Fold this sequence. Notes:
Layout: H1 2-40, H2 49-84, H3 87-93, H4 98-136, E1 145-149, E2 152-159, E3 162-168, E4 170-172, E5 175-177, E6 180-183, H5 195-201, H6 210-223, H7 228-258, H8 264-290, H9 296-316
Antiparallel strand pairs: 1-2, 2-3, 3-6, 4-5
Helix pairs in contact: 1-2, 2-4, 2-7, 2-8, 4-7, 7-9, 8-9
Amino acid sequence: MIINTYKQYLFKKFSKKILLISGIFFILVLIINLIEESNFIKDSETTFLTPVMLTVLNGPSLLYEMFPFIFLISTQFFFIDIYENREIDTLRLFGVNNFSLLKFLIITSLIFGFFLIFIFYNFSSILKNEYLKIKNNYADDNKYLAVITKNGIWIKDTFEEGVVIINADKIIDEFLINSSITKLDKIVLKSNSDLERINNLFSDLSSLTYFELLKLEKDYISIGYSTDEINIQKHKFYSLPILLCIMTIIGTIIMIHNKFKKNLLLNLFIGIFFSVTVYYLSHFSNLLGENGRFPLILSVWFPIIILLSVSTIGIIRLNEK
């Protein structure tokens, strides 16, 4: 009974820290994104409500990308709280050592991780999709459209002479296979939708729910289009709960190792510095994957493998503190 009570208490305390830090990050995201959206449509004839609506729709998707850092900082504030209130001493009187506490936090992070990928991710993707639809109306190049369906690739081009519709079964290298062109007037066609433009149009896969991602993968395979980007997105989806657990471990190690022997702000600075390091490590790994130095899937998991190795060393020494 006592064990269940302290677990419920710690779960509520840790959850509150995650919600609090998430709220702070979300407010910062909204402010920064509002400035960007206002600047994007500054020359358009629209009201102030439009950038506000775009910001709200895009905010959850941006927040989703920050959850690894949110969990690290939330873990630090969790330990700040239980240390300052001397609750850590009470827990140890009931036989809760550092490893037991870490195990509990990992399980809690894993639960939150599953919630984020199955519920929050799909919710943010739906909003992101609406965001892109609205924003496309204000884009300078919205007269050039492309889409991939089970019937192949469809490209719309607008010229001074009229509108051209291109349909093709497949893409091989930079060539459209079994293509047909529908146009009103006879023109010399030089398409504005080259391979790079088509790739860019489908690069923001965060606007698709997981099931839409699977459907798009089948469409890509049916027309011979590369599914590398989709596979990367899927593995980012799979790896998030593990990454959240690792960031929780790192936050725990930082706080237990220091035991407030150093300045409190310094402990938080270490956490923020580590978050920035993780971000650039992930970015560097992605660049290696894009340049062919790493297999694409490995480029997603490589930072996690590195962080897991570092965390394992810290866990071994955890109960010594």
